[in-house]
């Protein structure tokens, strides 16, 4: 009974925080879309995963510890119907997210198995496994989470010159360094499907960020812009995996905007946004450390209300 109470409390708390933060994100994103003020891929991603990270963090660092330290092992306290209902909703959210992630992983694995069966390994100095796939459509994409693989079609090799290929590959390597495929997997865990526009905006911003990371000099920027222009002239029929990043995603930023940004030499705002995130995390950690004992006591009082 003790473990059952703890499980019900944890799932109910997860659902309440997840639903509350999702509503906040929905209202905030609705306002931000009108202002068109966010250009940072990191900030957009943080907003999207806030419900999942916030709910998971609260349960892991507050709900479970407060229950283990303050809840008596032997008690006749009953579990209310409302708590059971919220726990069931929380379990549904978690199960849906895990199922979505498993499906995306499986589909990506099958897609890559089929691609590699008609590919040959290329020797590159990029520190990442690279393959040339027999396909007339000019495509480049990075697929996989733990050991991502870079796939370049034979059509892209024929269309682009050596410098353009290198610039395009640097773009995909930038995605690997940023962990964008892992971020896509985490997005699959976010079960609520109401934030498609936010996810599309993140894809747009992360392509711009990868462009900025790859184009570390004027020559590379010109070559990458040239590669984008050449590839966009062909309507590619080749699909890309769910846990993958491609040079020209369907929901990405417009090629015109990306080329203009590359040619203007506009800098990336990613470093500044990452510093901001680290400052926020450090301040939060400090506040939690100072008031942790009191926070656990307050959380236990809240969880007692959840059981009724």
What do these coordinates show?
It contains eleven helices and five strands. The two termini are about 15 Å apart. It is α+β, with helices and mostly antiparallel strands. The chain is elongated, with a radius of gyration of 23 Å. A five-stranded mixed sheet has the order 1-2-4-3-5. A hairpin with a 5-residue loop joins strand 3 (about 140-145) and strand 4. The mean pLDDT is about 85.
Q: Which helices and strands, and how do they pair?
A:
Layout: H1 2-35, H2 41-70, H3 81-117, E1 119-122, E2 129-133, E3 140-143, E4 149-153, H4 154-159, H5 162-178, H6 180-189, H7 196-214, H8 218-232, E5 244-246, H9 255-264, H10 270-290, H11 292-307
Parallel strand pairs: 2-4
Antiparallel strand pairs: 1-2, 3-4, 3-5
Key words describing this protein structure:
308 residues; alpha+beta; 5-stranded mixed β-sheet; 11 helices; 5 strands; 7% strand; elongated
| Mean pLDDT over the residues | 85
The structural class is: alpha+beta
Radius of gyration: 23 Å
Supply the number of helical segments.
11
SSE order: HHHEEEEHHHHHEHHH
**Tell me, what's the shape?**
elongated
């Amino acid at each position: 009974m003790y473990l059952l109470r703890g499980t019900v409390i944890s799932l109910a708390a997860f659902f309440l925080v997840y639903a509350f933060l999702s509503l906040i994100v929905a209202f905030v994103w609705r306002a931000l879309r009108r202002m068109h003020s966010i250009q940072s891929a990191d900030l957009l991603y943080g907003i999207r995963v806030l419900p999942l990270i916030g709910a998971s963090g609260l349960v892991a660092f507050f709900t479970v510890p407060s229950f283990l330290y303050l809840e008596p092992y032997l008690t006749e306290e009953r579990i209310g119907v409302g708590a059971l209902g919220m726990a069931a909703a929380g379990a549904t959210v978690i199960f849906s997210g895990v199922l979505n992630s498993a499906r995306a992983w499986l589909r990506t694995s099958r897609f890559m198995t089929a691609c590699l069966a008609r590919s040959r390994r290329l020797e590159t100095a990029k520190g990442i496994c690279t393959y040339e796939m027999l396909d007339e459509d000019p495509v480049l994409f990075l697929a996989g989470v733990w050991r991502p693989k870079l796939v370049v079609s034979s059509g892209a090799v024929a269309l682009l010159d050596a410098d353009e290929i290198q610039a395009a590959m640097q773009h995909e390597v930038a995605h690997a360094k940023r962990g964008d495929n892992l971020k896509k997997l985490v997005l699959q865990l976010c079960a609520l499907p109401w934030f498609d526009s936010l996810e599309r905006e993140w894809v747009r911003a992360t392509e711009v960020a990868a462009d900025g990371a790859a184009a570390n000099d004027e020559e590379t920027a010109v070559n990458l812009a040239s590669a984008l222009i050449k590839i966009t002239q062909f309507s590619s029929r080749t699909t890309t995996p769910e846990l993958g990043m491609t040079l020209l995603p369907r929901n990405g930023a417009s090629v015109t905007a990306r080329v203009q940004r590359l040619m203007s030499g506009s800098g990336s705002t990613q470093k500044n946004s990452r510093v901001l995130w680290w400052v926020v995390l450090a301040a939060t950690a400090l506040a939690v450390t100072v008031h942790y004992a009191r926070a656990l006591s307050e959380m236990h009082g809240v969880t007692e209300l959840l059981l009724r």
